[in-house]
Amino acid sequence: MTNPKEPSEHNSDLKPLLIEGELPLKAVGIENLKEANPKHMPPHRYLHPWFARRPTSASRLAILGSILPSEVESDDLLRWMQIGPNSKIDQSIAEYVEQKKARESERDGSLGEHYGYPRPFTQSPTETERNEIHRLLRSHWGDELPTVLDPTAGGGVIPFESLRYGLPTKANELNPVPSMILKVLLEFAPEVGSIREEADIYGKKIRERAKSKLEPYYPSTQNGEKIDSYVATYSVDCPTCGCDIPLVPKWWIRNPKSGNGVVAKPSVQNGNVSFECLIEPSSEDLEDFDPSEGTVSRGGDAQCIDCGVVYESDDIQEEFRNGNFEHLIYCVKYRKPSGGSGYRAPCEEDQVAMEKAEERISNDYRLSSLLNTEVPDGQETARTKRHGIDQWRDMFSPRQLVSHIEYLRAVEYYKDELYEWCEEYKVEALLTLFTLTASKMVEYNSRLASWHMGKGYPDHIFKRNDFAFQRVYVDNNMSVGSMGHESHFDKIVDSYEEIIQLLPENTPKGEVTNRDAADLDLADESVQAVVVDPPYYSSIMYAELSDVFYVWMREYLSDTFPEFFQGKLTDKQNEAVANPGRFSEIAGNGTSKKGLANEYYESKMSDIFSELYRVLEPGGVMTVMFTHKETDAWDTLTMSLINSGFTITSTHPITSEMPQRAGMRNSASADSTLLLTGRKPITERDEQNTLATLWSDVESDTRSAAKSAARDLIDSGLSLTKTDVIISAFGPTLRVFADAYPVVDDEDKEVKPRRALEQAREAVTQVLVEEYLDVEGIEDLDDVSEWYILSWLVHEAETFSYDEGHQLGLGIGVDIDEIKRSTKTWRKSGEDMSLRSHSGRVQSIEKKPENRSSHTPVNPDSLSFGLALDKIHAAMHVYDVQGESACCDWLRERNFDSDSTFKATLKALLQVLPHDHEDWVLARDIAVGRTRDVLNLEFSPNVFAEDNERTQQTGFDDY
Q1: DSSP-assigned beta bridge partners for residue 303
Q2: Tell me, what's the pLDDT at 419?
Q3: pLDDT(665) > 70
Q4: For the chain, which terminal residue's Cβ has fewer other Cβ atoms within 10 angstroms, N or C?
Q5: Residue 822: inside a domain
Q6: Closest by Cα among 278, 603, 555 to 439
Q7: Could you tell me if residue 302 is inside a domain?
């Protein structure tokens, strides 16, 4: 599905590009999903963790589509993208790929064998293919290959793919952490080439030197067992009896689902806690002990295992801030001399070794001052600062700090020797790989790295892209452990060598700069194409999170690359994110932190797009890859593009992420990416002669564009969720709005893109209702019940973005904030909202009225109800608590057999609720059996179709 734009006075002389016409979106989306397999990822992903990398195929489509002429055939494009079999086929490549996808579950062999070609990221274009592409590009762009720029390059997918096609490539990044990834991908790989021999020699030397220094801190047992890792927690003193309280949510070390359960069982003697390690314990071994019941509740309160008093979470946090806690080992994982691993309880030697590390911190000057930079206040750092982590050194236990500095010192020890043995550019590449290894070790060896009970090794810090404080962490022996230096270093070197193999022979290196994208060191009109995956509004606080890596990288590389590591921390002042944490001190007097953050983001993105407009030649192209659900983000993006002077010429939705299952769709990031393309006009727009358009004249056009886009998307067969259908329809809507800009209302006040997006959301929701909700009379329901049903229909989950729920409500005349308290249909959950089920809304019919909770608004004894949803939820409660017979009598008393709104709501909920939801099960039970007869129901069996797929094979009598 695409939206080619008709020429206007500002772009009529532009040479049309491939991205402004038809694209094989479904075939490319299929490849994106194939790449989402975490076991088979592109090699650059293993170099170092970074956030929000786009798939290879989506990036290739954005790059090639933005520079190739419009007459290129779909088969040629896919072939150049390495999609499709080498053998002859009697259909288009797109049709072939789609058919293979349809039969994917029936395959016997690997995905490569089934599709008849390997994953595209493993294949680079051949020399013949590059020559074909280059001939077309030179013809289109005036005898020169177009330069491709990514101004916010992040993990480097876009510029690396540009380099693989032999294109002049420039990459810029504000943050030094991904900048080092970019140097490896775009400079070292093509210029330095293989360094495996040197890496193997010095990697081993560094490891052996650090290992010898660390042996006293990880003592071996008499049996020759080597410490792999310590499972650690914290203890605070009980305020009542003085006993140690370990802050452990569960006592499982390996849960039973992993196949070999391991439990750390605590006991108390004279106020001191000790532990017993139980391997695959029987019920007799456990007696009355429940390993799933630790000392800490979900709210953070802790119960003393001696006297039973509860120590409240706020008071525990205060103890942390005052330093009144101890690091406590409660289980040890070790390596056997014969191979394999085991678990045991901590012994006296382990305690002594931990105390040695604490003494070392006090007596070693460099260690005592290492990483003493203050952790700045921010949205994410607030989580850890509540627990007394005020300096970056506090992110590590004493032994972790000692471990990391010994690897740093080992690299420093061999640095001069490296310069004597190797050329300077090789040494820089080697030092960078050593640094990436150290940074990866930080990811698995800090107080924020939790213990993975299922896999039996450290988990990485950023499971959720935040700084979540961990009550259980891993003190990892990086010289021996499964997530230590050797495993990380080998993987990084292997990835680097694979990256070299992916680049064509004699590939010229790319250009990497580290600066503000709003102030590029590029000449005017020197770039032909910009392909950018910009920072996503408020989704990820990149600079805040990456500081945990930066502080260590700076220790390793500040002498080698001083231009990258001038600041003590990453640049947050110029970062293009909407970070409310930055505005805590100046918010107030009518301005909120979020409002100020939004204003900053819009201003920053406008500055960046204006800078890109400057460096683009007239007729140049910019394709923005945007993956976000919130209307605010799209409103900001559009205003930034318009303010910068770009003309929006096309939009394309493409599946880019593995669709998330219901119950897990809480992220602001969508499952699909929208490619939004703008051109720099050859003839500049005369702003003084631009007349404003009345909103009343453009309103119907925005709705029509959104509806048309939604129907095309539904018919296209693209793998899009209903939410993504709405988001994908934003593109065509915004094009209509941008063409009419500036837009004013009847009072001559400026209309922002948000108004058009609200219309688009409402229009597309109507299309979704018509397409997926087979219910007569849905329009006759009260607004609240309709909003509740539509929320389930659109989001397919009980938890979703508050902004989305609010916008959906506005579309049908419901202010969800006004109904929150009175109807209890939803509750706030951070930046999200969650829909309530019947159990959270209906008073208990088994209790006397005077004993019922006043917080639940629905009285099941009522004979009439204000909302259709109240009727259904009350019926569910009666059926659930009192059974079918009582529910039949209850329904008769209220004459629900003739109530069309009751039946419409019941039928709608059967179609929109997930089948594993308690309310769907009760709705189904009411729709069958004796209650069905009482209600005189005549529902189609479609309402029972799995996952809302309509079928005629299941009927009521099957239940």
Answers
A1: 310
A2: 94
A3: no
A4: C
A5: yes
A6: 555
A7: yes
